Each structure stands twice: as structure tokens, then as C-alpha cells.
Amino acid sequence: MPTLSRQQLVTLGLLTLVWGLNWPVMKTGVQHFPPLSFRALSMLIGLPLLALGLVALKVPFRLERRYWGPLLVLGFFNMVMWHTLIIVAIPLLPSGRAAILGYTMPIFSAALGALFFSDRLPPRAWMGVAAAAGGVLLLLWNEMDKLGGKPTGVALMLLAAASWALGTQLLRRTRIPAATLTLAFWMTVMTTACLCLLATVLERPRWHAPDPVAWGTILFNAVLVIGFAQVAWFFLVRTLPPLASTLSVMLIPVLGVFSGAWWLGEILHWQDWTAVALMVLAIASVLWPSRARG
């Protein structure tokens, strides 16, 4: 089990805060602006920030042509599927429950790793997966009737989580000799192009000037989510073992649930509080240092 460096811990803490708060932010944003256009505009603004980051840090943009194919695969599963599916699903679900469904990703990731990538998980790691799964089930308990009436939103979120899990496994194992920032930039370019095309084809009749609330949520996503959090996540994926990087972010849906309750008035139940303990257990199972062998 890994011991996180100070840089990894700070990155993880900031990532948790930004992504956790972003669920009610996105829910608010798509109530004021068409969802695909909301995401596309966020990325169009965030992409130059990523480019400035590469320039400031003197990270090369260039990627050899022979790696374009693997990059397209990484971008499709890590970003295109995730960003497209969640932004379409969010209007159909409460923000907190959308976050919970999205963060079934560690469960998918552990299963995919064991089945297809020869990951050997110790009992402590499986305990973390079981705790995360228990937390998800508890948080969904009081929403079963509502979710049962909205199968499209549920299916989209679960498909997004499965795609993200596969993308995480592939990114962890990629042999593309490029910096994380370089990969993040070109995957964002790819995703921005796809979302702009989808927004133009599907939402053009609904386009209008964003109001102040829409602009606030769009800028939050552009600067903090696209400009920082996405790159921070890729950094963790490439510097931590797969299960550690995935289970380490399980506090995000908990923050999403409680921020949604505070911001949007979504009602909390005893299952929410119990799930907090299970999520913390899941995180501790992979991040608590192992006892040294004598």
C-alpha cells in the first residue's frame, strides 16, 4: 500500500474539494444553460488555461504521430464518454445521487483490473472496495423509487463510471512517452471538439446568452475543473497504483451529497451519515501505510 507524498496529499485534497463542490454547481448550471453547450463552453474557456500552463512550465505540446491512436483511445474513455454522459444525465437526477453513481468508478476499476489487467488485490484492498460499494448502496437507498422512474439518468451515469474506470486502467499503463500535462491538453482538445459538435447539432435552437448564474458555473468549471482538477486527477493516476488512485477520491461523492443538501436543499437521511464512515474506511484501506515487516 502506498504512502502519499506531500504533493500527492495536497493535490488530492484540492481535487476532492473542487470535484465535490462541482456537482451542485453543474446542477445549477444546466438549469440555466443547455447541458452539452454548458460543458463545451467550459472547455473552450479552460483549454487556453491548460495551454498557458504548458507554456509556463515549458512542457512540450508535441506528440509523435505513432502515439495519436493510443491517445485517441485514452481520450475517448477518460474524457469524451465521461464528460458527455454525465452532463446529459445531471438534469435527470439529484446532484448528490448523480455524484454517487459516478463514483461507482472504483468498483468498476477494481473489477476490471482483476479480470482483465491481472491486478492482484490483497484482502485489505477488497475490504476497501466492499466498503465503497456499501456506501454507494446506502446512499442510493432512499432514492430507489425516484431513480426507478429515471432509468435513463441512472444508465448514463453508470456507463460514464465504467468508461472512466477503463480509462483509468489504460492511462495507468500507457507507454506514451509524454508528460501528464501534454496528454491532458490533447485529450481536452479532443473532448472539446466532440462536445462542440454535439452541442451544435443537438442544442443550437436552444442557444441563448448565458445569464450571470450560468457564467459563474461555467467559469467555475473552466478554471477549476478543466484547468486544474482534470490535470490533478491524471497526475494521481500516473503516480499512484490504480486502486489507490481510484479509492482515494471516494470522499468526493460524500462532499457532493452534503454540498447538494446545503446548496440545493436535498434532504439527508441516516444512510448518508453511515455512508460517510464507509467511504472513509474505503479511503483508509488503501492509503493507510502498511506495517513494515521485521
From TrEMBL:
Pfam families per the UniProt record, alphabetical: EamA (PF00892)
Membrane-spanning residues: 36-59, 71-93, 99-118, 125-141, 153-171, 183-202, 214-236, 243-264, 270-288
Top-level taxonomic group: Bacteria
Membrane topology value: Multi-pass membrane protein
Subcellular location: Membrane
Homology family: Belongs to the EamA transporter family.
Name of the protein in question: DMT family transporter
Native organism: Comamonas sediminis
